[in-house]
Amino acid sequence: MYDLIIIGSGPAGLSAAIYGIRAGLKLLVIEKDYEGTGQVALSSCVDNYLGLPGMDGYSMGEKFREHAVEFGVEFLEAEVTSIAKNSSIYEITTADGNKLETKTVLYATGATHRKLGAPGEEKYDTKGVSYCATCDGAFYRNKKTAVIGGGDTALDDALYLSGLCEKVYLIHRRDTFRAAGITVQKVKEKKNIELVLNSTVAEIIGDDKVNSIKLNNKLTGEDTILNVSGVFVAAGSVPSTAAVPADVELDPSGYIVADESGITSVPGFFVAGDVRTKALRQVITAVSDGANAVTSITHYLETL
Ligand code: NAP
User: Fold this and answer.
1) Residue 225 confidence (pLDDT) above 90
2) How would you classify the pairing of strands 99-107 and 2-7?
3) What is the pLDDT of the chain when averaged over all its residues?
4) Which residue puts its alpha carbon closest to atom 31 of ligand 1?
5) Does any ligand 1 atom lie closer than 6 A to the CB of residue 173?
6) Which of 297, 295, 289 is CA-nearest to residue 255?
7) Nearest CA to 223 among 232, 214, 210, 231?
8) Where does residue 23 rank: exposed (0-12), middle (13-18), buried (19+ CB within 10 A)?
9) What is the DSSP string of 131-170?
10) How far is CA 215 from CA 62, 153, 172, 259, in A?
11) CB 82 within 8 Å of CB 28
């Protein structure tokens, strides 16, 4: 019987694991298909984490993980398929039929890439369509690419690709950006990034691989074709809540409702990181969530 099972090994889950171990909790971290520590592993440069400017997301995540391993955190690679509560004990079932018992659960599964839903997007996934510029950018050296989105990820991706590609089109459905002003400024200064605003992707076109995209200008209604070899979708994320019990309250966008305490609508079930309702989804806020949640968890365990 564990005191705490943490589901997810991104910055929120790992921070919680370190705080939990230091609090003397018997805990386990369950992670699905380990490929780096969550979404941060896909970021080319995390320039706003205190004390580590310029570090790439994958290396930062590995540092977090090494810290947890050094502190003796136990990991299990498995997919959680259900979480059931019997009196005050949680039973977690994994896809391979394993059943684990714990007094508390911390759900820290983060979020996944939002798809555009455009024709051709699925067909050309990995054949010109990518959701990770740092993973796949090198395949498009000296080629023309498009990045879709207007948030920090899209603009960071455009900057990263501008160092590899002949030309990068940044396609955004509005004419103002969500990304930080300093990043917008950097993008505007890059000679090989062209902004294509008020436009959406009507279709991703190709033969065996992508060769162009059809754009629709929302103001004029006009369609245009851009010749590109790569399309990098950076349209934000959707919360990963597949195994969340039905009685846990979600907001209308599907995020688990909780403040920074990580306390959800169900006693003993806690949340941390990008999968909860919050204003700012960053590594630093995920790490903070993990620490705060463990404080709530230790208080809860004292009441059992
Ligand atoms: P985001 O801020 O949610 O931005 C998603 C972008 O995609 C928005 O511009 C949105 O357009 C657009 N979009 C959404 N659905 C679309 C669709 N179907 N078709 C076309 N465009 C669509 O997501 P994010 O950029 O991944 O950032 C997530 C969080 O991580 C943010 O808090 C961000 O600040 C943070 N982050 C920080 C850094 C950094 O600090 N270095 C790097 C990456 C991410 P609208 O604007 O019109 O809604």
Assistant:
1) yes
2) parallel
3) 95
4) 281
5) yes
6) 289
7) 214
8) middle
9) S-HHHHGGGGTTSEEEEE-SSHHHHHHHHHHHTTSSEEEE
10) 38, 21, 10, 39
11) no
Ligand 1 close to Cβ of residue 134 (< 6 A): no
Cα separations in angstroms, 297 against 243, 263, 268:
20, 8, 7
pLDDT 10s digits, 236-263 = 889 999 999 999 999 998 999 999 999 9
Where in the sequence numbering do the catalytic residues fall?
132, 135-136
For the whole model, what pTM was predicted? 0.78
Q: Dump pLDDT digits (tens) for 169-200.
A: 999 999 999 999 999 999 999 999 999 999 99
CA of 69 to the centre of ligand 1 (A): 32
Four-residue CA torsion sign, 35, 36, 38, 43: negative
The pLDDT of residue 288 is above 90:
yes
User: Counting beta carbons within 10 angstroms of the beta carbon of residue 182, is it exposed (0 to 12), middle (13 to 18) or buried (19 or more)?
Assistant: exposed
- Convert the pLDDT of each residue in 66-88 to its tens digit: 999 999 999 999 999 999 999 99
Ligand 1 touching residue 282 (CB < 6 A): yes
Report yes or no: 257 and 277 within 8 Å, Cβ to Cβ: yes
Q: Residue 5: is its pLDDT beyond 80?
A: yes
Q: Position 301: which residue type?
A: L
Does the Cβ of 239 fall within 6 Å of ligand 1?
A: no
Q: 3-class secondary structure for 51-105?
A: CCCCECHHHHHHHHHHHHHHCCCEEEECCEEEEEEECCEEEEEECCCCEEEEEEE
Gap between the Cα atoms of 194 and 205, Å rounded: 20
